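# step 3/5: fold
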Amino acid sequence: MSVSDARSQLVLHLDTMEQLKKLRWDERALPVMIESLCARLAAIEPLVVAFVTEADRCARLRHQAAELARRWPDPASRPPLYGMTVGVKDIFHVDGFVTRAGSSLPPDLFVGQQAAVVTALQEAGALVVGKTVTAEFAHAEPGPTRNPHNLQHTPGGSSSGSAAAVASGTAMLAIGSQTIGSVIRPAAYCGIIGLKPTYGRIAADGVVFYSRSVDHVGLFAQDVATLQVAARVCYLDWRPSSARPASGAPPVIGIPVGPYLEQAEPAAVVALVEQEAALCGAGYSVRRVQAFADIEAINHRHGLLIKAELAGEHAPWFAAQEHIYRPRTAQAIREGRAVDTATAEVARAGRAALRCELEQTMAVAGIDLWASPAATGPAPAGIHSTGNSIMNLPWTHAGMPTITVPAGLAQGGLPLGLQLTAAAGADEALLDWAAGIEAVLSPWTAG
């Protein structure tokens, strides 16, 4: 099959995503939905390679769907995610699946109890389609996954399979993780919604860690509405009564100008100006605010911290298995071993300091959330790199909740995303605000 034929086939299947959404809530249609999904997987998965290979995937899904229907025969009693299909990044433990973390190391090294977020989704009625491809140990060595919008481009990473599965409609929801930009960036590259919560608000257990001080569990979906339902299930402390903008007024948005924004490519900067104009035209107040004067120092200390913690996680295995690690992962571990404890602790303390600084700036400037490019530009060509996560780094370092919404197309038709960041703990309001901004940008993006 030629690349053009493959792309045409992907577009055809992407157009049927709305049909799958409608099917998932009807018990009588659940078997039909599973058959549609299996047909979709047969057509798309060989091209996109979002999932770790599994024998008899569809037989398992048929059986689990039947069990789901038997468990909740009464439509009135069904849980909120009944029949929703979910992809799970292959650093999370899922009962019945092997965890490989994108690595060739012996998988028995990573055996553990099922992640709490997976359990929460299953108890809410979700069906696990399978493990999604991850870069090795959620770092920088990519797997074989391709971008559904153009198979010659990266889907981003490290949560590459999770983003690609949702973008291609082989999962309605997916779990990922973010240590720098591994949820927000691939979501932007693949033209979908990605959510990184406030640090710690979704449990990060049952996982092969990269950096325990920084790792966030994140979610992917095709629309904000789906994430709003999923977040209520996945968060440890969802607060439906959380404060909302007074009188339903739209949030005041701040764009962080200065050296941080200068890291973006011209295409992303031009797109941001267009996104700002679209939002202003819809009645939003947008202010340009000086921020991140010390972005180089922030970038540096984040890199020191996560590499030091990566080295600590792999200390039991690396000495004996170094030859099995792929080059970029091995190099990051070697660099992390050279970071002393005091330096790592200073970098760790800098996270809270940056959060405080950003929230003070928000208060002084009178803004509710930040808006910035979700990536330096569109997805780069090739699948040997996952792209540049530098635009996501400071928000992850600060542990503040961040979401990306599709926000235009670059030259060549690849998606661009707008990254929105709220104050720590304001995840509920962020999702509400994102729904409004999604409504503004979606028609404009489609155009």
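# step 4/5: annotate
Residues 291 and 358 are 8 Å apart (CA to CA).
# step 5/5: archive (pending)
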